[in-house]
Amino acid sequence: MGMLVRDVLALGNKRLAEAGIESSKYDAEELYCFMNGLERGRLFMEWAREVDDKSIEEYFNVLDVRAGGRPLQYITGHQEFMGFDFKVNESVLIPRQDTEVLVSEALAIIEKDKKIKKIMDLCTGSGAIGISVAKLAGGTSVTATDISTEALAVAECNAKTLGAKVNFAQGDLFEAVKKRFGKATFDMIISNPPYIRSDVIGTLMTEVKDHEPRLALDGGDDGLDFYRRIIEEAPMHLNEGGWLLFEIGHDQAEDLAEIAAAVKTTEKKARKKSGAEELSVYEPAKIVKDLAGLDRVVILKKRV
Questions:
Q1: Which residues contact 119 (CB under 8 A, 6 or more apart)?
Q2: What is the DSSP letter of 188?
Q3: Residue 269's Cα: distance from chain center in Å?
């Protein structure tokens, strides 16, 4: 004997809540919509419809997968970011709302600095950052790189589906560009690199530590390995007055500012202009907070 949709969803909510899923009600409804090809906005119209036993069984099989810790987005294969629908799987990190702060800051700078035409997205993953910028910042050229061929396959699929023109290159940070484009330089480099300390990964939520790719999480002993490399190598790939933007962990802003300040310019023009023997390649770092009031983005600008 079947059950009404509202009763099925109530049981689904209870099943996920008992498994410790904080967003149990939302996830139960999303999974129902996913399995039935239903737009969430139309779910209320289904409350009184009867669901047959076979469909109920299939629904609860999927609920068991979610209750076991697999992220909702890896089950449905999608995640919304900056108003766009991105395909995701376990080869890429799930795009998060915090990262929209990074993209919004980049777009604001591009709007003000009309000289920005060439943009690079390092550690692109699903392509969420680079593709969003390509879609929302007209007149720019975006190149996106990742060391993972599996991640790039996802990013390329997203670019095609969303109609975004993005150049992709595979390799370890800037090596990807060198291999494919030679001595290419950019007006802006954006990156959300791995920044979780190695010893912390094991303490993360099951959804993250057991399902999201460690390659995209592990930032080394202090979480700063990739920032150091990018900050030190970026000047060779940034045009004068170029911008470097990072997403960061909430307690990493001060460390990144110090790392950037320690990178000294070798350009005589900059030293002569300032009258200083030694000068940082970058202007003082700007720190931007997220909606929760936590440090989330570091913005650096290469001195002219």
A1: 106, 110, 130, 133, 137, 140, 141, 142, 143, 186, 187, 188, 189, 190
A2: E
A3: 36
Give 127-175 pLDDT, tens digit per residue.
999 999 999 998 999 999 999 999 999 999 999 999 999 999 999 999 9
Q: Please return the burial class of 233, using the count of CB atoms within 10 Å of its CB with bins 0-12, 13-18 and 19+.
A: middle
Q: Which of 187, 163, 168 is nearest to 127 (CA)?
A: 168
Q: What is the DSSP string of 209-270?
A: HTTS-GGGTB--TTS-HHHHHHHHHGGGGEEEEEEEEEE--TT-HHHHHHHHHT-B---HHH
Sole residue written with tokens 């190598």: 233
Tokens of 238: 């940034």
> Between helices 24-36 and 53-67, what is the axis angle to 10°?
130
CA distances from 106 to 126, 234, 296 (A): 18, 16, 13
What's the predicted TM-score (pTM) here? 0.90
**Tokens describing residue 33:** 């919509």
The whole-angstrom separation of Cα 120 and Cα 238 is 10
